[in-house]
Amino acid sequence: MKPLRKAPGGQSNVVEIIDETLRDGPQSLWASRVNTETLVSIAPTVAQAGFTQMVVGSGALFEAAVKFLSEDPWERLRLIRAATPGATLRFLIRGRNLMGWRRLSNDVIDVFLECLRRAGIDWIMVFDGLNDMRNIQHHFPSAQKLGMKVAGIVCFSESPVHTDEYFAARTQDLLDAGVDAVLLYDASGVMTPERTHTLVPALQRVIGDRADFEVTAHCATGLGAECLAEGLRLGVRRIFTAGRPLAYADSIPATLDMVAHATELGLETRLDLDRVREIDDYFAWIACAQDKRVPRAVTYAPDDYHRYVSHQIPGGMMSNMVRQLSDLGLQHRFPEILEEAAQVRREIGYPVMVTPLSQLVGVQATLNVVEGERYRTIPQELRMYARGYYGRPASPIEPNVLDRILQAGDTPIDPSANFAEPYLDRFRAEEGPFVSDEEMLLAVFNSRETLEEFQRKRRPIDGMPQLRNPIRALLGELGSRRGVRSMSIRIPVALSYADAADVLASVDACPPGYRYELQHGPLDLTIEKKA
User: Fold this and answer.
1) Which among 21, 26, 53, 370 has most CB atoms closer than 10 A?
2) Cα 366 vs. chain centroid, distance in angstroms?
3) pLDDT single digits (tens) 476-500
4) This prediction's pTM
5) What is the number of alpha carbons within 13 Å of residue 208 lying toward its C-beta?
6) Is the pLDDT of residue 343 over 60?
7) If we measure between CA atoms, which residue out of 493, 501, 332, 458 comes closest to residue 68?
8) Are the CB atoms for 431 and 422 separated by under 8 Å?
9) Integer CA distances (angstroms), 57 to 121, 125, 185, 276, in order
């Protein structure tokens, strides 16, 4: 390997890119509804493309695998590991919750980390929605003892209390805890290039050479790529991207676009761009064949930005809220609920809008609007938040609102008071025996009813899926399309997955009852669709 060139001031000219095509992309855009074979098939190509690391799992992916795909998420991790020898794999951990809303004790955290390590995970990245170190400081030494490296996440948010000084202090907390990297994480997509210009140097001054510095930014307001580009100008040398069909909108910037930004700045990425294009083509095909959305990049609009930044409800959560309100015939009240969410968020201390805190805000705002009286009904989770169960908010809860939330006799809760209390021995005795720790953890994370349904529907996973030839994939998909009566095809040269996706989309657009002759580059296709 050739030596790294150094930029002025000793800064490396090489940008390390961490791939999120298998995790953040599907989680942000496709509700994590992507089966294991789809991911394992392309994983070797991702591993060979030159990315510094691959993010391959999270609590949301675990939940979707069990509840919606009827798949064992542990088996998914093992299969991805087997398909990517030599690659560095990373997993995102949701603080004390791991999965869902319930906060878990140290022994659950420890066994979960042991299982991740056995499955082949090399790095973890850990966040707490309140940036409260008490909730996550146990994770770091526990993972490092197992040989894993750890990235502590600073969750970005925009509010009067989330100043550069606030984030610098949270970064110092992570460094004191001994993390290997600090990750500035803009989950809501509200960071601007101007804020990046002041915040990144503030964190760099704190970090120095004590840890690596990483940045990821979502694109809900259209500024994610610009923020990463500004970070590169300021010396950030590790960023996160995704393949183009799984980038932008509520996801993160596309790999090839960030490579272009880096190149314009005279920086190297050392990615195999042909492999990156193969990844893009493959997921363009998957999106078409499985009828999944490929978003357009959001264009920044100041008015839209200011409306969004007031509430910062993540895109995936907003789509769920719209669907639930539609089911109740209340979709016309959604704008009111967003305005109310902005007020609730301000009143309860500006929580970062990530799970489970975004749900606390959204549920309370909905109740306030639908019931016609603010804080008439208080969910138990919000009451626990106000007592300190989830940690310390960035700003105190407004006193008049706190009076409405709390009941007589409610006392403050130290969130870390019960972390050391053993849980698993009792759980094994009451719910076991279990075949493995992995099986036991699925029981910890899910209700008995959910697990029983999972076991009934559990489907076998192809342990060695092959990346099918695009021509065979196209023919197989055309053959499975209802209404296709006959077809003939002439393909004189190789066909890419992007070509296959274009052809399939054209066929799907053809109304029934006619015979069609389609040309796409070197491909001639004649197809008859019955009426």
Assistant:
1) 21
2) 25
3) 666 666 666 555 666 555 667 777 7
4) 0.88
5) 5
6) yes
7) 458
8) no
9) 9, 11, 16, 20
